[in-house]
């Protein structure tokens, strides 16, 4: 009802557009077309004949609304300021191109063409006036004016059609005369500005012919303007003054000054029109114009089916794109794996400028224990002292046993007994046998522990220097860590490689981003509403138009994929130059890591060294006590064995016959026969342990 009684303002245009859009939504769901189940009679009155025309077709309702929209726009345009290049031709153009022309005579093809070109011509007039007020270049103004002429010529052709003439009746002649007048008038304006351009280019002969042509066409316009309002007559007179003045001045100057030949008009290049106006577009599905679809919940099955087909088209597009991406990614991954270039570690120069955190922790831990090295050295010194004491005790025991064994052997020889074979000691006394057994056991334990002790000292000597370093100033620690020495060329090679690796990563990130954007676009792309309002025959075309929205992102992806070859080539060249630098950096990094690990190992070995040192001290302290007791026991046993040997020797002496008294001899010159035969000779006796002559029995002293 609002659309039928529409107010004659821009709000009325909005109402007509909304109603037209909702009719479009309705007819795509309800069968209200010609000869369809829900078709209803629709009646409108023709504008020229006044007759009422009725059709049972919802498209007739839409066509009439469109016609009225164009008519209302033309009325508003006539009332508005003449500064806009938008015009009412859009509604008439959409009506001509999308609806049948048989509904009524005022919607015939010729009438619609007439309306379209009249609207475009008047809009171009507005643009022409604006261009002249803005003092645009003469050639541009001439082209704009030439386009006004072209639009009015098309309108004139439509007016000359017999069907149009019979429909319009008397007004056809009036309109035709007015349109022809405008054709001549704006042709004159076009040639006026072509003459002005010739004047600017100092082509004085051309200037004369253009001004003359403009004057001729203006005279034709004046002839056709009879009966027009006074405002039109006044405009024509003003234009005559301008063109006439220009022509007279140009002709006079050329005749008396320039003397250039005046060419024929048909030898000059014709002025080509410049269509710069635009028809207001009509889009029945634009929600900004038509508002929300009030039939949105009514989705026909055909629309669902079409939506599934569109989804398959989207999936096909995504598969094609992803196949290209995956192929390129596979090549890129294989290439980067073969290069073995990690962008995060290819330039590790920063690691050499500071002490690693793990070493800082160790230095901090040692800083609160300043006596670390001192304690370790003292602990090892104590261990060495105890070790030495144990070794001395065991050596003394061994010496006592060897001495006792030697005395026992001598005694056996003295008594004339056959000594045991060389290397086989005589059987010791039970006490000494036990001492010897224990001594052997302790010696074995000591030898094993001695090896451990030696290894412990080696470990301490290995770590003590590192611990001193960690306990010292941080500058010394930093100085102890290896660092690379690179030339300026080496640094340049490194920077170039980093830059290209950055490009590789940038290419990867951009590719992932574009892929994600494409997936999100496809996921959000739902054209069901458009499918509902689209004719089945137009589905394929709609799909093609809708899929064009992915063209831009596909172009970006194609550019990204195409760039990969150049990037990898540049990376190959950079890697060749980087080979020598890479080797040097790898060696320094290995040394650096080894040094750090060694220092950390020394710190971690400290507690273990202290623990083992304490265990060694405890072990040797215990062994020292046992060795001391065994030493006392060995001394006592040796003294007992010595006393026993003395008793045996005394008994043997008593068994000998008493000697005959003789004068003492000054010296023993010759051995008695019995001694030579193996008897006893005190001079031949070896000293028996701590035995001295004063301690011999009385009967032996004389011997």
TrEMBL record:
Residues 387-417, 497-524 form a coiled coil. GO terms for biological process: early endosome to late endosome transport; endocytic recycling; protein transport to vacuole involved in ubiquitin-dependent protein catabolic process via the multivesicular body sorting pathway. Keywords: Coiled coil, Cytoplasm, Endosome. Residues 678-689 have a biased composition (Low complexity). GO terms for cellular component: endosome. Residues 1-332 form the BRO1 domain. InterPro entries: ALIX_V_dom, BRO1_dom, BRO1_sf. It holds the Pfam family ALIX_LYPXL_bnd. It is found in: Cytoplasm; Endosome. Residues 648-689 are annotated as: Disordered. This is Tyrosine-protein phosphatase non-receptor type 23. It comes from Eudyptes chrysocome (Western rockhopper penguin). The lineage of its organism: Eukaryota, Metazoa, Chordata, Craniata, Vertebrata.
């Amino acid at each position: 009802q609002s659309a039928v009684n529409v107010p004659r303002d821009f709000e009325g245009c909005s109402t007509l557009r909304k109603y037209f859009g909702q009719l479009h939504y309705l007819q795509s769901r309800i069968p209200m077309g010609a000869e369809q189940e829900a078709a209803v009679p629709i009646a409108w009155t023709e504008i020229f004949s006044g007759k009422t025309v009725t059709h049972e077709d919802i498209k007739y309702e839409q066509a009439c609304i469109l016609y009225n929209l164009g008519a209302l726009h033309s009325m508003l345009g006539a009332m508005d300021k003449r500064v806009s290049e938008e015009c009412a031709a859009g509604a008439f153009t959409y009506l001509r191109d999308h609806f049948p022309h048989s509904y009524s005579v005022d919607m015939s093809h010729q009438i619609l063409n007439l309306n379209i070109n009249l609207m475009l011509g008047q809009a171009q007039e507005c643009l022409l006036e604006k261009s002249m007020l803005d003092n645009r270049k003469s050639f541009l103004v001439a082209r704009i004016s030439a386009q006004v002429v072209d639009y009015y010529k098309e309108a004139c052709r439509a007016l000359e059609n017999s069907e149009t003439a019979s429909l319009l009746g008397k007004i056809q002649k009036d309109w035709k005369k007015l349109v022809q007048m405008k054709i001549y008038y704006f042709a004159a304006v076009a040639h006026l500005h072509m003459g002005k351009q010739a004047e600017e280019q100092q082509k004085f002969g051309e200037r004369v012919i253009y001004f003359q042509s403009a004057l001729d066409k203006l005279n034709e316009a004046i002839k056709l303007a009879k009966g027009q309002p006074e405002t039109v007559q006044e405009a024509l007179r003003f234009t005559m003054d301008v063109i006439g003045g220009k022509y007279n001045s140009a002709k006079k100057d050329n005749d008396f000054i320039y003397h250039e030949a005046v060419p024929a008009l048909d030898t000059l290049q014709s002025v080509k029109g410049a269509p710069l106006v635009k028809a207001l577009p009509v889009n029945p599905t634009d929600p900004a114009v038509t508002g929300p679809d009030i039939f949105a919940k009514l989705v026909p099955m055909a629309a669902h089916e079409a939506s599934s087909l569109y989804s398959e088209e989207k999936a096909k597009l995504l598969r094609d794109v992803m196949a290209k991406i995956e192929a390129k990614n596979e090549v890129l991954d294989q290439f980067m794996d073969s290069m073995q270039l990690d962008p995060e570690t290819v330039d590790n120069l920063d690691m050499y400028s500071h002490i690693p955190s793990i070493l800082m922790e160790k230095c901090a831990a040692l800083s609160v224990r300043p006596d670390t090295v001192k304690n370790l050295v003292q602990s090892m010194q104590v261990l060495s002292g105890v070790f030495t004491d144990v070794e001395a005790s065991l050596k003394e025991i061994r010496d006592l046993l060897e001495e006792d064994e030697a005395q026992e052997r001598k005694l056996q020889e003295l008594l004339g007994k056959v000594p045991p074979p060389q290397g086989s000691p005589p059987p010791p006394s039970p006490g000494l046998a036990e001492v010897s057994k224990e001594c052997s056991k302790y010696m074995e334990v000591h030898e094993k522990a001695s090896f451990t002790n030696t290894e412990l000292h080696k470990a301490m000597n290995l770590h003590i220097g590192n611990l001193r370093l960690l306990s010292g100033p941080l500058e010394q620690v930093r100085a102890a860590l290896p660092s690379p020495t690179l030339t300026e060329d080496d640094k340049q090679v490194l920077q170039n490689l980093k830059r290209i690796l950055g490009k590789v990563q940038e290419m990867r990130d951009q590719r992932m981003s574009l892929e994600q954007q494409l997936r999100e676009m496809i996921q959000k792309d739902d054209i069901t509403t458009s499918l509902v309002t689209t004719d089945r025959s137009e589905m394929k075309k709609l799909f093609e138009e809708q899929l064009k929205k992915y063209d831009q992102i596909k172009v970006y992806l194609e550019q990204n994929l195409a760039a990969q070859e150049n990037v990898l080539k540049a990376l190959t060249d950079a890697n060749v130059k980087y080979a020598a630098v890479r080797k040097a950096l790898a060696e320094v990094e290995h040394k650096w890591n080894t040094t750090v690990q060694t220092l950390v190992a020394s710190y971690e070995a400290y507690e273990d060294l202290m623990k083992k040192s304490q265990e060694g001290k405890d072990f040797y302290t215990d062994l020292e006590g046992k060795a001391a007791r065994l030493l006392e026991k060995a001394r006592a046993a040796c003294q007992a064995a010595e006393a026993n040997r003395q008793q045996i020797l005394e008994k043997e002496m008593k068994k000998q016959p008493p000697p005959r008294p003789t004068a003492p001899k000054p010296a023993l010159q010759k051995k008695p026969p019995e001694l030579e035969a193996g008897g006893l000779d005190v001079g031949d006796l070896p000293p028996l342990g701590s035995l001295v002559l004063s301690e011999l029995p009385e009967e032996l002293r004389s011997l």
